[in-house]
Design brief:
Length: about 375
């Protein structure tokens, strides 16, 4: 009886303990990145426009029907490539007619020369009056003048004939053809097609008076503006947020201010082997210069903003969340330099910010800064 009672009591205690002991809730997981030191050059960003170095609008210089189109729209062309062919018949006939007229004029000139020689000999022997020599000389000059006019006509006829072959004057990419084979075209027609040079290519941007002061302050106060900007590297940020692979160099700073916008136009030269930059494209550029500065950087996704300014959530050594106020510099791609508020190796929360609060225990999952 006693043993049975003891067993019953023990079983009841165990059952009570099992019912009362609930497992602890798992700590919320957050993604964190480590604040790391990085060498960053002072930089200033601008909105910019891509511009082709050369852009040519092909036009017809003579009237006629379009007989051939010898290119594919959008293809690369070389200087001298034959692109359009116009009808040649009337222009070849004009050349033949001018050549025939020249032969006739040359014969007339030869006769005039002979007559002048004959009259000169007769006048020398007093066998003919000088007036006949004067008439012969006048006819000789007239024949020379006619021949010169006809030679000029032949040159024009050959020039007009050459205009029936429309060739590319530059290397570049040709756009859409505005006319089909069989259309009548001429000097009064619209543009036949446009050729745009591709590599290298320009990127132009305008610098305001305020930005000029920022450039002087960030890129160095010594030297002239043109020298400061020309010595800096220029980087393009594409529409998808990625940085263009090739950096550029400023090759022109305008000498006057645009009075309409109160800005100074600046132009940079970029290599464009893969044809990623397209004439007319809107991009952002960053002018980078000066001496590198070692700064802490964190992902931009870690930064929050309230009425007091920017702040981040930091996971400390006890895996508790802390709020840190920071002073940030200009963004560097997807990263943000931190001037004050953090120390190297601080873990900032980049994902899961909404589900945690200051003082809360969390499970940090680290990713590399910038990944």
């Amino acid at each position: 009886m006693l043993a049975a009672a003891v067993f019953t009591i023990a079983t009841s205690v165990v059952a009570y303990c099992q019912e009362g002991a609930k497992p602890a809730a798992p700590l919320p997981s957050v993604t964190v990145a480590r604040a790391v030191s990085k060498d960053i050059r002072p930089s200033v960003s601008f909105s910019a426009r891509v511009e082709a170095i050369d852009k040519v609008e092909l036009r017809a210089r003579v009237d006629g029907f379009l007989e051939k189109r010898l290119f594919t729209e959008g293809q690369d062309v070389k200087a001298g490539d034959l692109l359009f062919v116009m009808e040649k018949g009337q222009y070849e006939a004009a050349v033949d007619q001018a050549e025939g007229a020249i032969e006739s004029a040359q014969s007339a000139l030869e006769l005039a020369n002979i007559e002048v020689d004959r009259q000169t000999a007769l006048v020398a022997k007093s066998a003919a009056p000088k007036s006949q020599l004067d008439v012969a000389s006048a006819k000789q000059k007239e024949a020379k003048g006619s021949l010169a006019q006809l030679q000029a006509s032949l040159e024009k006829a050959n020039l007009d004939l050459s205009y029936t072959d429309i060739r590319s004057p530059i290397d570049g990419r040709i756009g859409r053809s505005r006319y089909s084979v069989g259309n009548f075209i001429g000097p009064s027609s619209n543009v036949l097609a446009t050729i745009v040079s591709q590599d290298p290519i320009y990127v132009t941007f305008s610098v305001s008076q305020r930005e000029i002061l920022e450039v002087r302050e960030k890129l160095g106060t010594s030297g002239k503006l043109g020298e400061q900007v020309s010595a800096a590297a220029v980087h393009v940020q594409l529409a998808n947020g990625k940085q263009y692979d090739h950096s550029g160099k400023v090759n022109f700073v305008d000498v006057t201010v645009d009075q309409g916008t109160d800005t100074v136009p600046v132009r940079a030269n970029f290599s464009n082997p893969d044809r990623i930059l397209i004439d007319g494209q809107l991009v952002n550029v960053t002018v980078e210069g000066g001496s590198p500065q070692s700064l802490l950087v964190i992902p931009q996704s870690a930064v929050q903003l309230d009425q007091a300014g920017p702040f981040v959530l930091v996971v400390n050594s006890e895996k508790k969340v802390e709020t840190r106020r920071i002073e940030a510099g200009p963004p560097e791609g997807s990263e943000l330099p931190v001037l004050k508020g953090l120390t190297a190796d601080d873990l900032v929360v980049t994902e899961g910010i909404q589900k945690v609060r200051a003082g809360q225990l969390v499970t940090p999952v680290e990713t590399k800064s910038g990944s």
